[in-house]
Amino acid sequence: MTVDTPHPVAATGRQPTPPLLRVEGLTRHFMVSGTRIDVLHDCTFDVSRGEVVAVVGQSGSGKSTLLNVLGLLDEPSSGAYTFDGVDTTSLREGRRSRLRGDGIGFVFQQFHLLERRSALANVGVPMVLGGVPLLRRRTRARELLEAVGLGHRLHSQPHQLSGGEQQRVALARALSREPALVLADEPTGALDAASSTMIMDQLIDQSRVRDAAVVVVTHDPKVAERADRVVELVEGRTR
Ligand SMILES: Nc1ncnc2c1ncn2[C@@H]1O[C@H](COP(=O)(O)OP(=O)(O)OP(=O)(O)O)[C@@H](O)[C@H]1O
């Protein structure tokens, strides 16, 4: 007797979901004083919703350059980058920045919070840009700060918070518009072990609970080992 393995689509009745982001043959070079510097070469990979991917590689291998392209802050020199079904290659700036604001949240090593503004106000910034009404904004910012354990520091300004607390504010800000993709560039680089664990817990939670895709650039093996998958950059090439 032969047993047929059911076709995945027939078995579930659903089409497989395409990846949230797809990078194909992507290159990026810069011209400096008439000299061409090739940074990324023929990078190809994809990331699906619900996945946490760590991007690792030696200093200068092109990790931040790649993250800038994924975040629609920069454009590839050649190749394709498709985000949420949109080929981003020929997008005009207005559409590109709407796609970025609606779909992508950023966390950086150096927090980049507004000084002299409260944690609540900082978390509200992307929602101001997204046209979210004031009351909704304040409620959501409070909920997000409570979720990262800062419900008691809503009115504190960045200089009144520790590094770990500032990064939690930055993370709450990144999540304020419920982005499909969270990009984090060395999010734990300036933090101690306990704060690093907390930030990674929150990032992983985004993928598990909200089905977001998370891409984390890191030098820290402990961070990389918590990812579902690792993309290694070696002299600008993905492995
Ligand atoms: N705007 C630019 N103009 C010229 N060269 C650039 C530019 N941006 C990046 N580079 C070069 O690209 C290379 C890769 O830089 P990138 O910051 O992406 O590396 P990285 O892997 O993130 O490094 P690190 O781990 O040290 O942060 C470096 O040699 C850098 O000097």
UniProtKB/TrEMBL annotation:
It comes from the Bacteria. Pfam families: ABC_tran (PF00005). Keywords: ATP-binding, Nucleotide-binding, Transport. InterPro entries: AAA+_ATPase, ABC_transporter-like_ATP-bd, ABC_transporter-like_CS, ABC_transpr_LolD-like, MacB-like_ATP-bd, P-loop_NTPase. Residues 21-239 form the ABC transporter domain. PROSITE patterns: ABC_TRANSPORTER_1, ABC_TRANSPORTER_2. GO terms for molecular function: ATP binding. Transmembrane segments: none annotated. Signal peptide: none annotated. This is ABC transport system ATP-binding protein.
